[in-house]
Amino acid sequence: MSQGSWTDALYNGTFTLHRLSPLHHPVAPPLFAQETLLAHSRRLKEALKGDILRGVRVDLHNQAESTAIGPLKRCHWRSLWSETTSQVDFPGIPGFEGIHIELEYRINTYTAFLLRSLATERPATLGETRLPLLLTRMPTTVRDVLLDYLTPTFDVRIEAMRLSSQFMENTLERLLEAARPHEAPNFEMQVKGVQLVLCFKAPIAPTLRNLTIDIRKEDVLAFLNRGKAMIWGQGNNGDRSGSGPFMCSIRGYIKDQTALDMNHGLITISRLACGGFVLAADGKVKLGTPVSQTVLVDETANSTPTHPLRETFVEQLLVKAQERLH
After folding, report:
1. How far apart are CA 262 and CA 242, in angstroms?
2. Looking at the DSSP assignment, which residues form a beta bridge with residue 115?
3. 3-state SS class at 61
């Protein structure tokens, strides 16, 4: 993921996740060409303003929700490029990271990202572009029109992404490692603590729906190191969950202190937060603003600022999105 200014639109907003099958389109001009994006901007704007979509008049502004958002002023599609790749030097796919759709209404501006993984992408055929992850921050009625536009236009299947407990745990472990636990002061500043919200299904706890567990930033590293010791066989209390070190440690601690077995099949994670990044089982995510760049400067790389937590977080979502659609 590049460090370009477009990433600012990702921060401090709650996004809804969808996964997409490959987008199909004419070979020329390519999907990321300016003329192609301008055409899609115009057509989507017509659909959102109540013109024709799939041969049917879609009058969004007759719906109650449209009163709150006001009239659509501008619809803009633009391509996203890796900072390390020049669109001039590489007129083809290399370096193309995705598409940003911005919808400017009288009161608010809404946004959508169709993102591509430069690290784990599968090969695509001619006339096909893989943008497996769709993030949207917009009202439901607006999002429905966007999805209805994308589906026939690109012959694409769209599926809401639900996030399993295992996926959220794996993402948390990767975020903690990306925060460089060997650099304790910086680690605490980036992690900002961890919050887990457990969800209990009726048979196990009829009167208890949720339980929130907060781990202070000062304690996260201790739990992480304890979990590594447990996994390495130093005091392993029999955890067989296959968890990473942090969650292995948390499971052991919760069981010791409360006798609550988090491995029980009727206990799931409904929400997880770490370092300003939030994951929810219903397919909602939030990306926090990165820690000050001065903290994240890598002195061995000519002091180039990096945002490893953000990059790790988005890459995890991309990997999840590339799973086979059901």
Report:
1. 12
2. 98, 133
3. helix
Measured CA to CA in angstroms, residue 264 lies from 169, 201, 261, 269 at distances of 15, 10, 6, 11
Q: Which positions of the chain have pLDDT values less than 70?
A: 1-6, 51-67, 83-94, 119-124, 234-242, 290-306, 326
CB 133 within 8 A of CB 318: yes
Four-CA torsion 229, 233, 237, 239, nearest 10 degrees: 90
Q: Give the CB-side neighbour count of residue 9, counting CA atoms within 13 A.
A: 18
DSSP 212: E
Q: For the beta carbon of residue 239, count every other beta carbon within 10 angstroms.
A: 18
- Cα–Cα distance, 264 to 209 (Å, whole number): 15
In this predicted model, what pLDDT tens digit does every residue of 240-249 receive, in sequence order? 566 899 999 9
**Tokens 């009288």 -> residue:** 106
From the CA atom positions of the chain, what is the Rg in Å?
22
